[in-house]
Amino acid sequence: MSSSTLNTKAAALAHVQALIAGTQKHFPSGSFTIGTVTYTSASLVQVLTDLVSAMQAHNVAAAGAKDALTAEQAAQAKVDPILRAYERLVLVTFAGATQTLADFGLAPPKARTPLTAQQLTARAAKAKATRVARGTTSKKQKLAVKGDVTGVLVTPVTSSTAATPTSPASPVTPAPKPAQPATTTSSEPSTAIATK
Fold first, then answer.
1. Which spans in 139-189 are helix H?
2. 31, 55, 156, 157, 165 from 160: Cα distances, Å
């Protein structure tokens, strides 16, 4: 039961009980005509009290039913493996005795009818079509599939020496930049003369 249902039931019960208390306090000896029936305060309170009793009985029964359901589910979970194992044992023990199995409320397992050649062909065609539709492949075919990557620049590592870590206590000073050789531009091509 949801909490909103419980709240609604509790609110309805409280409402009827409040009507009873209000009637007894403000109309101790009143007379009411509701529809075509005339009620005294006592008879109206009795009608409302009967409703309260019915609502409380229903709440008690619902709680008992919930407890009974919980107990049944726990017993079912405990006994189910035993029940299945015992059924298998009986089926194996009396495999050919249909009447004996009927005494246990069991039916012998149905013999499996072999498929015809046409059914086997249809099954194979359906399996192939399903495989194509799903795009499933074998292990070797999956290994042959490679992803294409574009727009990634890979820079190879040229230094074979590993960088040595520096301790955080010693300050690191940047190394001075080496002097760049001066470049001269010439419009005439240089020629090398070989000497003998």
1. 139-144
2. 108, 87, 11, 8, 16
Structural domain includes residue 23: yes
Give residue-wise pLDDT tens across range 153-169.
777 788 766 555 555 55
Residue 176 lies in a domain: no
pTM, full prediction: 0.43
Say yes or no: 65 and 116 in one domain: no
Instruction: Please determine, for residue 41, whether its predicted confidence score (pLDDT) is greater than 70.
Output: yes
| Sequential DSSP letters for 122-149 | HHHHHHHHHHHHHT---HHHHHH-----
Closest CA to 20 of 53, 1, 46: 46
In sequence order, what are the residues at sequence separation of 6 or more whose Cβ sits closer than 8 angstroms to the Cβ of residue 106?
87, 90, 91
